[in-house]
Amino acid sequence: MFTKASRNRLIDLFSKIVFKDRPVLITLTYPRVFPCPDRAKEHLDAFLKRMKRRCPRSSGVWRMELQKRGAPHFHLIMFHLPFIPKGEIQAMWEAVISSDIVWNKEIGLFTRIEAIRTARGVMFYASKYLAKSGGLNNDAYLTAVGEYVHPVTLETCWVGRWWGVFNRTDLPVGEEWTMLVEIDDTPFLIFRCKAAEVFQKINEYRWRGFTLYVENAEDWLNLWLDLLIAS
Hints:
The chain has two domains: 167 residues, Alpha-Beta Plaits, CATH 3.30.70; 46 residues, no CATH class. It is built from six helices and seven strands. The strands form two sheets. A five-stranded antiparallel β-sheet has the order 4-1-3-2-7, sandwiched between helices. Helix 1 runs antiparallel to helix 4, helix 2 packs across helix 3 and helix 5 runs antiparallel to helix 6.
């Protein structure tokens, strides 16, 4: 299943990305005929290998979902990608799936490409397309233990991972700083109240810890240090 912990890891990854160029959102779907998720991920792997041959420095993050009809489809946020005509990307995807699916214009095939203009836009797409709570448009095709059942052929398979990284070495991840301190209750409560003024849902956590995804991280760090000194 796409668990809360897996979702948090995905959002953590996006919070560390440095946006030096304009990312691209690519959606890959299947026509009326479609495979189980395990075979679909083999198609995705072949598509990404073609993309890497076409653009050696390309990298990105992918996420699989199930459509209402039960068909798997993929959302990708790609980095270091030069302009590629939509028809070329469509042809790459058609070539990959043609070994399993006889495609023609009557049954249809769809790829979507969209440039993301800002870092805020990336986080919007990450939360909208890649990190949906629950992770699925429709989970009616999953058993209680997470096994997928094809709605037409009744073939079953284990889904495995719902998201992954493509060409991690070229993913534009920034430097990460970690600080671990022991505190008493007062600094934490004050800091939480300040955070809740901006992010109201933090109040729901009460005494539990929380994570802030902010653009001005240094300002929040300085506030935290001031509270520790004052205590």
